Amino acid sequence: xxRAVLAPFIFVIHTSLQIANLALWGGLIILFGLVKLIMxxxxxxxxxxKVMHALMFSFGRISVILIRLFNNVDIECAVHGELAxxxxxxxxxxxxxxxxxxxxxxFATYRIPAxxxxxxxxxxWLPFVGLGAWALDMPFMHRFTKKYVExxxxxxxxxxxxxxxxxxxxxTVPTTVINFVEGTRxxxxxxxxxxxxxxxxLPPKAGGVSFTLAAMGDLxxxxxxxxxxxPENKKHPMMEMLSGKMTKIIIDVSVTPIPELQQDSHKxxxxxxxxxxxxxxxxxxxxxxxxxxxxxx
Length: 297
What we know:
The protein is α/β, with parallel strands linked by helices. The protein is built from ten helices and eight strands. Helix 1 (2-36) packs antiparallel against helix 2, helix 1 (2-36) crosses helix 4 (129-135) and helix 2 (43-70) packs across helix 3 (99-108).
């Protein structure tokens, strides 16, 4: 009862502190990114990138400290398998809220290499987030509709070109690539509109992930199948977290083998994409069953 009464005040104070935290570390990352523009490739630039990653990790850690401070929350993190900082990982995660990004950054701290998110191009204009992500060499994807590609056929495959370009950058140093394969945040309205065959997930899209794996499959050590859940705050997790109403967060991580992606010479590109989509659908079916058990428990 007390928390419900105080929620508007908590929201104002907590939101202000979260924005200040983002502005501090995001501003520093952008400043370091501008300096990096004049640096030649080499050891100094590599060291500079490590400093910038440390700034990103600091943002994630302090953000989660604030979440704990303003919420009586239990954060349950389970990792099924071994992790290391000197490997390459592909994270495939479900997507419920912008809070997911903060939690994944904080999760990566001290466990795995610095994460790289594939972001929508519209986010480049989001204060501190857009330019900060640019400074950290995160790729911005241009999502073209089928109608748009039909009208401008030369745009076909541009997303894949962007993926390939950034994958080349990721080959030189241990990296974690994060892809929200549902393409958007889960809501009941989207679940119904997309006629999802899964209870707790939207249908996954294979495009970006399959190309990332094709470009870097020999480097990736494992796929990290991460399930993010807010079991008692399903409707508006971000708002409820900022208002001090978040009670439980589940981060469930399964360390799984990289799928066999060597394209059979007898298979066409279309057949190969179908093969990979079937692999992803199978992974999503298992994930959906695991989420159901986690929610029931």
